[in-house]
TrEMBL record:
<dbReference type="GO" id="GO:0005886">
    <property type="term" value="C:plasma membrane"/>
</dbReference>
<keyword id="KW-0677">Repeat</keyword>
<dbReference type="InterPro" id="IPR045052">
    <property type="entry name" value="Copine"/>
</dbReference>
<protein>
    <recommendedName>
        <fullName>C2 domain-containing protein</fullName>
    </recommendedName>
</protein>
<dbReference type="InterPro" id="IPR037768">
    <property type="entry name" value="C2B_Copine"/>
</dbReference>
<feature type="domain" description="C2">
    <location>
        <begin position="1"/>
        <end position="112"/>
    </location>
</feature>
<comment type="similarity">
    <text>Belongs to the copine family.</text>
</comment>
<dbReference type="Pfam" id="PF07002">
    <property type="entry name" value="Copine"/>
</dbReference>
<dbReference type="InterPro" id="IPR010734">
    <property type="entry name" value="Copine_C"/>
</dbReference>
<dbReference type="InterPro" id="IPR002035">
    <property type="entry name" value="VWF_A"/>
</dbReference>
<dbReference type="Pfam" id="PF00168">
    <property type="entry name" value="C2"/>
</dbReference>
<dbReference type="GO" id="GO:0005544">
    <property type="term" value="F:calcium-dependent phospholipid binding"/>
</dbReference>
<dbReference type="InterPro" id="IPR036465">
    <property type="entry name" value="vWFA_dom_sf"/>
</dbReference>
<dbReference type="InterPro" id="IPR000008">
    <property type="entry name" value="C2_dom"/>
</dbReference>
<dbReference type="GO" id="GO:0071277">
    <property type="term" value="P:cellular response to calcium ion"/>
</dbReference>
<dbReference type="InterPro" id="IPR035892">
    <property type="entry name" value="C2_domain_sf"/>
</dbReference>
Length: 442
């Protein structure tokens, strides 16, 4: 899944590096190569003279891959000459983040940092992203008559700015014309502006996470166990969780994830559970960020007794109830649920098929990562096209909501490759759901 996005950049409270005037800022954008780990320049904004709170009108267009981690850096410089090199220009600060974080945040704000990674007092960068779904353009031309004269010597030097109001009430600069010097009746040059710059979109979704704790994983104290906590190399569960979590975490606004386990006897009575919170707090099963889930997983390991069978239908039905409530209470549900299941197998196949078919008309997707070397042929059957998967009763799935990936095929690949394979079908599943309900997707 790939789409083109447009970034709009602004800064606030920049440092003043000039003696007799204010800084003349410009933003330079770099993208990190995931293989070589080097930063490559991809764009520069225009330079704005004498401004410590610039709103750059030049947009930055780039390809956005949903299933990849794209690290991006924004560097601000005070430009006082016409040289293309930046070595002789004053550095005003920079920030780094993933492109997905910008896309999912609607308006991303971050303090500018020194090259030593220390925050620069009040300096701030603001970046917004929009998907370019409409490639049409408009050519506009403007002129003005009898403008006020704001200059004591000579006449005003006018220019036009066009701002778009966003759904949250904020404003984004869409275009800025050239300056017409010493003229109260200016005619600006015709200019082209994308129609996309005049409209916006919003896409927000929730994430659910499930981790398998069955006895088939083996003794967690043994190196042969899939759950063995190696101090040097994370086990396959942690590797898969980290790789996928690095991508999906940018699509949840509060970064609070309900994390559930299944296939274990849990304290205090050590009854078998297929739907227990990792933090053992049923009323508040949320973990802060992917690191919070990993920490909860590590804390749960010493007090659990791995058991069986490996039933995943309870956790699917658990998330389906949230999705059903969202769909029932809102004619245009803004939340879309993604359930990530890490498991070495499934024993309740009929119940799982029934649960998937029942959830296939709800705003949710299910990602299953098969951990270990077991035969996953039965699990692969769950990842079928529309109408292929059927419940035991014969009822067909309304739409494909499952993506299955065996982790062993990616053990020697990068984390980005695993995340890309796991999340490849999610964008299509999301858009298919909203289209099936007659809702416009952006």
């Amino acid at each position: 899944c790939v789409t083109k996005v447009e970034l709009t950049i602004a800064c606030r409270n920049l440092q003043d590096k000039d003696v007799t005037s204010k800084s003349d800022p410009m933003c330079v954008v770099h993208l990190k190569d995931p293989v070589t780990k080097t930063w490559n320049e991809i764009a520069r904004t225009e330079r704005i003279k004498n401004e410590l709170n610039p709103d750059f009108s030049k947009k930055v267009e780039m390809l956005y891959y949903f299933e990849e981690v794209q690290q991006i850096r924004f560097s601000i410089f005070d430009i006082d000459n016409t040289s293309a090199t930046l070595d002789d220009d004053d550095f005003l600060g920079e920030t780094e983040c993933s492109l997905a974080k910008i896309v999912s945040s609607k308006t991303y704000k971050s303090p500018l940092m020194t090259r030593a990674k220390k925050a620069l007092s009040k300096s701030l960068i603001i970046v917004s992203a929009e998907e370019i779904s409409d490639n049409r353009i408009a050519t506009l031309s403007f002129k003005a008559h009898k403008l006020d004269n704001k200059d004591f010597m000579g006449k005003s030097d006018p220019f036009l700015e066009f701002w778009r109001q966003n759904s949250d009430g904020t404003w984004t600069l869409a275009h800025r014309t050239e300056v017409v010097k010493n003229n109260l009746n200016p005619t600006w040059k015709p200019f082209v502006v994308p129609i996309q710059s005049l409209c916006g979109g919003d896409w927000d979704r929730k994430i659910k996470v499930g981790i398998d704790f069955p006895g088939s994983n083996g003794d967690p104290n043994s190196r042969d166990s899939l759950q063995f906590m190696d101090t040097v190399r994370p086990n396959e569960y942690l590797q898969a969780l980290s790789a996928v979590g690095a991508v999906v975490q940018d699509y949840d606004t509060d970064k609070m994830y309900p994390a559930l386990g299944f296939g274990a006897k849990i304290p205090p009575h050590y009854a078998v559970s297929h739907e227990f919170p990792l933090n053992f707090t049923p009323d508040n099963p949320y973990c802060q960020g992917i690191e919070g889930i990993i920490d909860g997983y590590k804390r749960a390991m010493p007090v659990l007794k791995f058991w069986g069978p490996t039933n995943i239908s309870p956790i699917i039905n658990h998330v389906a109830r949230f999705a059903y409530q969202a769909q029932s209470n809102d004619t245009s549900p803004s939340n879309y649920y993604i359930l990530l299941i890490l498991t070495d197998g499934i024993t309740d196949m009929d119940e799982t098929r029934q649960a998937i078919v029942g959830a296939s008309n709800l705003p949710m997707s299910i990602i299953i990562v098969g951990v270990g070397s077991a035969d996953f042929s039965a699990m692969e059957m769950l990842d079928g096209d529309d109408g292929v998967l059927r419940a035991p009763s014969g009822q067909p799935v309304a739409r494909d909501i499952v993506q299955f990936v065996p982790y062993r095929e990616y053990k020697k690949a990068s984390a980005a490759a695993l995340a890309k394979a796991v999340l490849a079908e999610v964008p299509g599943q999301v858009t298919q759901y909203y289209r099936s309900r007659g809702m416009q997707t952006k």
